[in-house]
Amino acid sequence: MQWISNSFPTFFIVLVIVVDVSIAKSPIILIPGTGGNRLEAKLTGKKWKPAWYCLSSTITFYTLWFDLTAPFPGFTKCWADNIRLEWDLEKMTTSDVQGVETKVPEFGRTESVEYLDSVGVIPYMKSLVEYFVTMGYERNKEIRAAPYDFRYSPDTTPHNYFNELKDLIEETYVLNNNEAVTLITHSYGGLMTLYFLNKVSKSWKKKFIKQWIALAAPFGGSILETLVYASGFVDKKLERVIEPLDVRAGQRSFTSNLVLLPSRFAWSDDYVFAQISNKTFIISNISGYLDQVGFHEGTLMMEQIVNNTELMKMSPGVPISCFYGNKLNSTVNRLIFDKSGFPDHPIGFEYGHGDGSVNLESLVLCEMFADLQKENVTIHELPDVGHLDILENEELFSTIESMVI
């Protein structure tokens, strides 16, 4: 009898500890990359249309990104004109095209990043979200998302995004018993997050942010981005139905693409990223390249917005773990043109290491943060994993699980 009375309190204490550990997990906020969340638009009376059959007005908002009708013949031009930005070169500002009103739906909700279309055809972070739901995370409480208008550079992002992100982090902290939040970013979302973390105080970060997990972050930009300004760029899966030149104007108008141009931090000043017959363009002369492809206004705008060179001088000020894939000879590291086809039609590419979209030289720049901050910085390379494949990698998910639970 005496043995039972002594052992009961001990068992009770152990039981309480086990329960506490099971609920002590860091809530997650997902910050997607370029094109990683839906955008909605409403046409309010466009005065100019690229084709007579393009709509000038709509009654309600509809899915602009990703609009499943965009790849259909004839519709690409309509869609591309609706999603592009207009530049005011006197004020050096950007905005929606006249007659187009856009918004980012479902802020805070994972639905905004799980699928890129409104009916669930094109998955993005679906596998990542479902993995953590299986591990006990509750959608829209313990795992949430912070979508944004990915067309803009970090410093010109509209809709008061960074204040909303700050509020979302604080709200998520409170909803989860004052547990600090883990930020998980993909691709361009990493540059957005780096910018954000430099806009909040050290004391705020210490209280609300447990860690930042950056997936496939293009800290030094990408050589592939230079193709956007030459011929336009379309994913290989869509090349048969979408002509890159049809989307070039829209892609050129996104100031986020200027931020993603290759940086001197990742390549030497004299690195040749494009060759036109006997003429070459080097990293230190990207402005000359933009002029040569007929986009001088890009040079002017690039001088006004934050760029990745400036961003990489900033310290996150939180523990950061960077994960990236590396597939040998998979990633464009030089564009090849002849005179007759420049800039609309490259005749070839040279390839190097990277994740298929971002060069290895850019992906490894995360290690620079170790010299800028006292908080822990770790780098993890995933062999033979692509830029989007990383969002389907359960081995990675398991590693992240061990970091948040």
Automatic annotation (TrEMBL):
Gene3D superfamilies listed in its UniProt record: alpha/beta hydrolase
Keyword Signal part of the UniProt annotation: yes
Statement: the UniProt record of this protein carries the keyword ATP-binding: no
InterPro entries xref list: AB_hydrolase_fold, LACT/PDAT_acylTrfase
Gene Ontology MF annotations: O-acyltransferase activity
A Pfam family annotated for this UniProt entry: LCAT
Keyword field: Signal
Protein name: Uncharacterized protein
Organism this protein belongs to: Clytia hemisphaerica
